[in-house]
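pasting for the record
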Amino acid sequence: MGFKKISIQLRSAATGEAIIAAGGRVIVCKPGSPDLQVISSPSTQLVIANPLTPVRGLISFLIDDQVPTVDLYIQAPGGQFRTALGVTPSGPNEIDIDTDARSHDYVIPFSIADATANVEKATGIILPANAAVQPSPLIRVTAAEASRTLSLGIVGANTGFIAAASLATAGLVKASLVVTATLGADLRVQDSANAGDLVPEQNVSRAGSQLAYLLSASTVSAKGFVTLPVRLAA
């Protein structure tokens, strides 16, 4: 088996300078899919963990030479987020990060191919300090499965942002407060003026925690992407 190398430096869109701070995470997925791509170390050619951690802003890994492209879901060291789809071994050599932007959509792939039904799956993405998760998460279901649900939160509290939202229909699904709330408890409060009424509220208490998702028991085919809006404080 042969390999092809992908090597990309993160850089500031404002200054053009390389981002060399420690940290950040990169989820590497198969093209057009939320399934994780097998990646290997450039130095040892052995399989490495996915997501990976950039080294001084450098994203570097090997893929099988039969893999045409990969999709990257990138959390920069400063907490900024962007996606890079259809990345080839021939380029790009740099990916620009808008380090001045405060509002970011964290795109989190989920797939039963990389998880176990009814077992929490840590994503590797850690909410940065001074981050506020906004109460408007969305799910794009790419492989629907009747009577199955997705939850999303942090490790050890995986229903905090989305609580058992249905995956029965392909397309866009919102977390809701209607009837049985699927907007997680970390993103809602009870209106003190009207006992029993739930209202959405951003969450600032989960900074430093790792995101995790949960696919319900007996899931065999469900997959897709969660968009989690995050605002970084100035």
